[in-house]
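Tokens as discussed.
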């Protein structure tokens, strides 16, 4: 089963979580969002339901990917898990979307 490391639907504001899972090659960092889930922990539960073994939860916040403008907005924090480390978010997002502008601490309506 292929599981994407970065999974964030376009054009919907949503909560996201950065976490690592146990894999054959060691620990793999992931960044997942889901606009249909209410809580950050729901994203972790979704990952577990797919059979992923959660190694560590780094934190979370909110994210919005504007596909037309090629901008990614990252803001906020998870009440349960705290803020996601910025360096991990940058590394993962820039690796997946190298042509997009990444904006931290900026909600989509502020741009």
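Sequence:
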């Amino acid at each position: 089963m292929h599981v994407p490391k970065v999974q964030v639907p376009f054009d919907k504001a949503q909560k996201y979580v950065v976490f690592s899972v146990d894999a054959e090659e060691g620990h793999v960092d992931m960044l997942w969002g889901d606009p249909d889930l209410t809580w950050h922990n729901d994203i972790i539960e979704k990952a577990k339901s797919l059979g992923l073994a959660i190694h560590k939860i780094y934190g979370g916040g909110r994210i919005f990917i504007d596909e037309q403008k090629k901008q990614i907005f990252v803001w906020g924090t998870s009440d349960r898990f705290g803020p996601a480390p910025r360096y991990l978010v940058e590394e993962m997002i820039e690796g997946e979307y190298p042509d997009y502008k990444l904006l931290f601490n900026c909600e989509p309506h502020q741009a």
